[in-house]
Design a protein that fits this description.
This protein has a domain at about 90-110 and about 230-460: Rossmann fold (3-Layer(aba) Sandwich). It has 20 helices and 15 strands. It has helices at about 15-25, 50-60, 70-80, 110-115, 120-130, 145-155, 175-180, 195-205, 210-220, 230-250, 270-280, 295-305, 330-335, 340-355, 375-390, 395-415, 430-445, 450-460, 465-470, 485-495; strands at about 5, 30-35, 90-95, 100, 135-140, 160-165, 185-190, 220-225, 260-265, 285-290, 305-310, 355-360, 370-375, 420-425, 480. Helix 3 (about 70-80) packs antiparallel against helix 5 and helix 17 packs across helix 18 (about 450-460). About 55% of the residues are buried.
């Protein structure tokens, strides 16, 4: 069965999966969604002997239907290889009352590697399939991890350029250093004086700039995206939730058909949306627990049905979640309103004009799969400390948000179903915050480099190669611009007249 894609906002034209991957964002500003979510007509118990790569193929082939078997398997093999430091790619670790799905074993030690390792393969294959000879310019905003993972994936890939915008004071020191030291003649990093929402809005405006598109076309270029708005980012993420359930079965921790709760720290909503799509495919997931930090626009939305970005913006120890405009929520809205593109377009216009919209009561039943809550900085630090003291397992602040919210959920509901928590970053990416939570008085005076060694000793872990690399890597990118200078920065980088 062929799966076609169309916009969430009204463009009725249907395109293939490879065309959606190439385009990134729909021409009307909407996000591409499958015309229907395919069933996973293969029982999880029949997948227990499969490798991660084999599970990924079974999931992805049901969405990316115009890729041949040979093409898709080649993309998967090229992505999930020795750049991951464990053979299982996404191992499950039991700590306390939950299993942690470690999604940070790739080249940049964050979960974005799981999708951004394969996106360049999917995109260059899509270009060949569709006879596209233009240079593909990847334009991306990042709250910390996407930028580095995208650049690592696209570095020196023929026929591509990649430009990443990030908030100058809104990422961790490790995240910033990973980006500004990135190698690759086609990689470009630009800091903006603003927050992530400013960067994301600016990038969306650039996608919608028709005169800029004309300039690009005249120069033999076209934009695409590596953000989670690209369906080529979302589909690979579905695979690891299926894999987690399969591993629980294979390990004898659950029986076939047992319901499992999924807990995800989220800001832009893409990671938890992938779990929702997996559930829609037939996976026996029960509650999808959406964990926010103090930028808790999503938890308020699930509690009351109103999405309101008109609130203070907080800079936290979990910077990848410091977001007030969760782009991927649009794909969920499309589902709960009965695939009504006019309704979605109206809500998005209200968000743009007034900063808020409200889902009517009769549509809120579609949100029943989700539970939303948040953890502030104090709760995050306490959770890191508590789990380390009781188990020796070390969480990064993003995963600690999820773990703390899961504990709140259990207290509120007494729900003791097995739970998988998406562990989205290595604690080494946030060594200072993690060590302060473990024992602040002992570690606070250390330099960043000293803290890496201290964390390795405290957690009984090897320092990841990504951390060793940035200790001595030279800075290669140092451009900083105001929000209204993003367009001119792109034109300068691409040498457009």
């Amino acid at each position: 069965m062929e799966i076609l894609y169309h916009s969430t906002r009204g463009d009725a034209s249907e395109i293939t999966a490879s065309q959606a991957v190439l385009n990134g964002l729909a021409p009307d500003g909407g996000l591409y969604v499958p015309a229907q979510i395919p069933a996973l007509d293969l029982a999880p118990e029949d997948m227990t002997s499969m490798s991660y790569q084999e599970v990924a193929y079974e999931v992805m082939r049901r969405y990316l239907t115009d890729y041949t078997e040979e093409e898709l398997k080649k993309c998967i093999a090229g992505a999930y290889d020795s750049k991951f430091d464990v053979p299982e790619i996404a191992p499950l670790k039991k700590a306390g009352d939950a299993w942690y799905l470690e999604l940070f074993h790739g080249a940049t030690i964050a979960f974005k590697d799981m999708a951004l390792s394969i996106l360049p393969h999917l995109m260059t294959t899509a270009a060949r399939k569709n006879g596209v000879s233009d240079k593909i310019v990847i334009l991306t905003a990042t709250s910390g991890d996407t930028g580095k993972a995208a650049m690592a994936g696209f570095a020196d890939v023929p026929g591509t350029e990649i430009i990443v915008f990030y908030p100058k004071d809104g990422v961790s020191p490790v995240q910033e250093r990973q980006m500004v030291t990135q190698k690759g003649e086609n990689t470009h990093v630009v800091a903006i004086r603003g927050n992530f929402d400013d960067a994301q809005t600016g990038v969306k405006n650039l996608f919608g700039d028709h005169s800029l598109a004309d300039q690009l076309a005249a120069a033999g270029m076209r934009f695409s995206s590596a953000n989670s708005i690209n369906i080529g980012r979302l589909v690979p993420q579905i695979a690891y939730y299926v894999y987690a359930y399969v591993r629980l079965l294979a390990n004898g921790d659950i029986q076939a058909g047992d319901p499992v709760n999924i807990v995800v720290p989220t800001g832009n909503f893409g990671n938890i949306l992938a779990a929702y799509y997996a559930k829609q495919m037939g996976m026996p997931f029960d509650k999808l627990i959406c964990a926010s930090n103090q930028n808790n626009v999503l938890s308020d939305f699930f509690a009351g049905g109103t999405y309101d970005k008109n609130r203070p913006f907080y800079t936290s120890s979990s910077p990848s979640m410091d977001i007030l405009v969760s782009s991927n929520l649009e794909r969920l809205l499309y589902r709960i309103c009965g695939d009504n593109t006019e309704t979605v377009a109206a809500w998005m216009q209200q968000l743009s004009d007034n900063g808020l919209y409200t889902v009517p009561e009769e549509m809120r039943a579609g949100l029943a799969d989700f539970y939303g809550n948040y953890a502030d900085e104090e709760a995050v630090s306490a959770r890191i400390h508590e789990l380390y003291q009781t188990t020796g397992y070390v969480l990064d602040p993003h995963t600690a948000v999820a773990s703390a919210v899961y504990e709140q959920y259990r207290k509120e509901t007494c729900d003791e179903k097995p739970a998988v928590i998406a562990s989205t970053a290595s604690p080494f990416k946030f060594a200072r915050s993690v060590l302060h939570a473990v024992d602040g008085a002992r570690y606070d005076s250390m330099t960043d480099m000293e803290q890496f060694d201290a964390l390795a000793e405290a957690a009984n872990l090897d320092t990841p190669a990504a951390i060793e690399e940035i200790k001595t890597a030279p800075v290669r990118h140092d451009m900083t611009v105001n929000i209204d200078e993003m367009r001119s920065a792109v034109c300068s980088i691409l040498e457009l007249n």
